[in-house]
Amino acid sequence: MDSSEFAPAIQSILATAREREGDSDRVAVRPRSLPVAFERAAQDGRVPLVAEVKPTSPTTDGERSDDPVELAEQMVAGGAAALSVLTEPEHFGGSPETLARVREAVDVPVLRKDFILRESQLDAVQADVILLIARFVDDLDGLLAAARERGFQVLVETHTREEVDQALTAGADIVGINNRDLAQLEVDLGTFEAVAEAVPESVTLIAESGIGTPDDVARMRAAGADGLLVGSAIMQGDVEANTRRLTRTETQ
Questions:
Q1: Strand, helix or coil at 205?
Q2: Which among 153, 125, 203, 123 is positioned nearest to 31, based on CA atoms?
Q3: 15: Cβ–Cβ under 8 A, 6 or more apart, which residues?
Q4: Domain-embedded: residue 26
Q5: Cα 191 from chain centre
């Protein structure tokens, strides 16, 4: 992987991820099903939303110093079908310990959001779902298999049709399409619309990044998103109200 094509912020994140040590103790997980959580939300008239506990980010201004567990509970109260918790410490203010606390406090699936590059980094903490970014992982097949051996569900993040093909070839059954181009950090919701048709209906499909309004939610759902991952639009302001505003659009 040649990281020189990426924005400086991404280059810094990747450099840190390469240096981060894994854990010597292998984890084993009995996961809460993300696809089932999406189905339950839809049956309840809610948009299947993965709300993200993100204290800070290189792509947004400011940070939240609230207790992450309280934020997570507010997101669930607002109707989130699942949660995403950042565990990357240097650039996003996350930690494995935060994820463990959140997962203990809620009854919905919890995604570990991090830049995982090698197998030993899987063992940092138990989570229901882990993220593998196709563009960053050299051996997607091997890392996907290693994650599943531990019991994790795996969200494989893509940005292009080629990356979708790579994910499907590796056996991914949960695929995310990131509207943010990690090379330049530009966001275009048209990315999901252009790439989603390459994903078969049997695969759980998640739209990521740039989703901030009920209109954005409707647009991504119309393009085929089974679920949506939203961070900044929820974290800015009243977390519970922001979550409810996006999850309840299908009942209005």
A1: strand
A2: 153
A3: 3
A4: no
A5: 17
223 lies in some domain: yes
Counting the structural domains of the chain, the total is 1
CA distance 117 to 140: 9
- 208 belongs to the catalytic site: yes
Q: Are 234 and 242 in contact (CB under 8 A)?
A: yes
Q: For residue range 102-155, what is the model confidence (pLDDT) as tens digits?
A: 999 999 999 999 999 999 999 999 999 999 999 999 999 999 999 999 999 999
Catalytic residue selected from 208, 232, 240, 242 = 208
Number of H helices, E strands in the chain: 11, 10
**Which residues, 6 or more positions from 66, have their beta carbon under 8 angstroms from its beta carbon?**
none
Residue 149 is part of a domain; what is its CATH number? 3.20.20.70
Q: Which of 209, 232, 240, 242 does the annotation list as catalytic?
A: 209
The sign of the dihedral angle between the CA atoms of 242, 98, 45, 188 is positive
239 neighbors 80 (Cβ within 8 angstroms): no
Q: Is 202 a catalytic residue?
A: no
pLDDT tens, residue by residue, 123-133? 999 999 999 99
**Is 157 one of the annotated active-site residues of the chain?**
yes
Residue 104 falls in the annotated catalytic set: no
> Would residue 25 count as lying in a domain?
no
